[in-house]
Amino acid sequence: MLKYFVKRVLLAVLTIVIISAITFFAMYAIPGGPFNSEKALSEVTKAALEERYGLNNPVPVQYVNYMKNLLQGDLGVSLKTQREVSTIIADGFPVSAKLGGMAALVAVVLGIVLGSTAALMRNKWPDRLIVFLTTLFTAMPSFVLATLLLYFFSLKLQLVPVWSPGSPNYLLPVISLAAYPTAYITRLTKTSMLDALGQDYVRTARAKGVSGVKVIFKHALRNALIPVITYVGPMVAYILVGSMVVESIFTIGGLGSQFVTSITNRDYTVIMGTTIFLASLMVTANLITDLVYKLVDPRIKLD
Amino acid sequence: MNDEKTLRRSPLSLQVDLSKFSSADFEPASEEEKSQQEVMSESVTFFRDGMRRLRKNPLAMASVVVLVLILLTIIIAPMIVPYGYDEIITVNGRRDKTAANMAPFTWSQMEQQYIDDGGSLFPHIFGTDSTGRDYFIRVIYGARVSLSVGLFASILVLIIGMLYGSIAGYFGGKVDLVMMRIVDIIYSLPDMLMVILLSVVLKEVLGTALQGTVLDKLGSNMVAMFVVFGLLYWVGMARLIRGQILTIKENEYVLAAKCLGAPSSRIIRQHVLPNCLSVIIITTALQIPSAIFTESYLSFLGLGVSAPMPSLGSLANEARQGLQSYPYKLMFPALAICLIVLALNLLGDGLRDAFDPKLKR
């Protein structure tokens, strides 16, 4: 068990190192420095700028410097706004985390409830309705859903106010972010619930005269939820990536929309910093998911 | 047979007592009797069996119909509609400035004038966009781009994943160990973030490298997207195929082929891969919609195909600007994405039910 844990943690660390290397060299490979898009700069100014940002050093030196700073939490300075990248992340992330956390919570709770309902009422109308909706929402990209919701509920019907930093309304962004994971968890729960209901231990419990509710909650659901744990890691990744477009659409000033802006502006240090930050989050989420999964279900063999 | 008993039969003997048979029992079978043994239904191959089951699935068949209709539309429509996807509408060779942001099936002032003068024009089925380009043809081309990206990316993933997975699975041992560690590392990278990052970079890098080549026409973004897919998404396929091969290669027919001296390449092609077919078909079918999803997402971020070439994602993104006044501009590409992905998803599910031997009932 310990061996497996150590192995997984090491793999996660290695992954983050690789990601930071890919990020650094990818950005380095871009032809033309970050100052190309500005108005024509004189050679002297350009050299001074490069000197200031350490761009005139050889690549390995630049990489080592970057990694050193990275370990100290220093992600450099935005090339466009001159703000510290770590400050940009620290400013944007709380909003994104709140939005993403709410979406994740909605997805897990709603997904489990809908999935169990569909499994217990198999082939009746609630099941069919749930299957129809999940099929629909797995085919709808988050940006389409977000734009449609914004148009109908905020602009046309004016039921939900448009987002403003003073009075944030999380309803529509959370719905657009949570729709896909909810549909996915619903499907997952339904399949594993059906599987669990057909198991011998459920039949034994029923035969012993355990009440229907108790069988469902204590025997079937508890085992049916194990596969759902495996989806938590990918869900965090989906929500983080999805929040980029959703935040841009609802003009929420979170980390996601910052990232999109930095892509449009070719603000390399911000792209690098945000990518490493988000990637580390995703890798950590996957690591925790894997470890919890193994801890929860002793039947799973460790490799 | 001989009725005389020469030896006494042991009462415990299990030997057949021939005295119970007459010589008539050993006559050759007549034609009529032979025909009773004939198998009534012809033997069905794996592929046909799967197709038969697929045909019984109404949802999957409906998706096939929808997909065929979409394919026909995007192939035929550009031949009929006289506008180009990047063509700004002109009347009598003069740029029509009033033809921007028109509602579906309406004419601009200049066009109306032209029609009143006795000319005939092709209607703008979805209206026009903000620069005065026919929106219908743009959506059609957008769907073309999205579908072809999905298809080619999946084929690329299939080829790389199949080669890698079959080599790792077939040779096993140290080769497998090393190859699979590489897969593990790529697998643990957050794919969408890497896709975004690589698209940003490759767009710049390839833009200069491709100038003047055939690929330049395709656009650096398109090529970047294929490279990204080829670099990242094959790992899932490689893992699946390796797993399949690990079980298949233990079968006796593989051993037999080996004993007969068949080379590894032949065993992989002739014996192992055909048995992975179901996994390959299902995974590829489900890969296409996910590739379309990714492409539309990238295009929405402005990292997809380069303008003026439209894609469904970039059209949806452009439509956000005038959302309040021209909501239909969002509806058309959004509906097209949803319809295509929905049909492909349902078809993929149908294929899985039809071809996955584990689900056979």
Write up what this structure looks like.
- The complex is a heterodimer of chains A (303) and B (361).
- With 303 residues, chain A is an all-alpha fold.
- Chain A has a domain at 92-267: MetI-like fold.
- Chain A has twelve helices and no strands.
- Chain A is flat.
- The mean pLDDT of chain A is 84.
- By secondary structure, chain B is mainly α.
- Chain B has helices at residues 31-37, 46-55, 58-80, 109-116, 135-171, 173-188, 191-209, 215-218, 220-232, 234-248, 252-259, 264-272, 277-300, 312-319, 328-355; strands spanning 90-91, 94-95.
- A two-stranded antiparallel sheet of chain B has the order 1-2.
- In chain B, a hairpin with a 2-residue loop joins strand 1 (90-91) and strand 2.
- The radius of gyration of chain B is 31 Å and the shape is elongated.
- The mean pLDDT of chain B is 81.
- The interface between A and B is large, with 44 and 41 residues.
| Main pleated sheet of chain A | none
Order of helices and strands of chain B: HHHEEHHHHHHHHHHHH
Mean pLDDT of chain A: 84
Oligomeric state of shown chains: heterodimer
Q: Helicity of chain B, in percent?
A: 55-70%
The parts of chain B where pLDDT drops under 50 for at least 5 residues are none
How much helix, percentage-wise, in residues of chain A? over 70%
Radius of gyration of chain A: 24 Å
Low-confidence stretches of chain A: none
Largest interface (CB within 8 Å) is between: A-B, 44 and 41 residues
Briefly, what is this?
The complex is a heterodimer of chains A (303) and B (361). With 303 residues, chain A is mainly alpha-helical.
How would you describe this structure in keywords?
heterodimer, A: 303 residues, MetI-like fold, 0% strand, flat, B: 361 residues, two-stranded antiparallel sheet
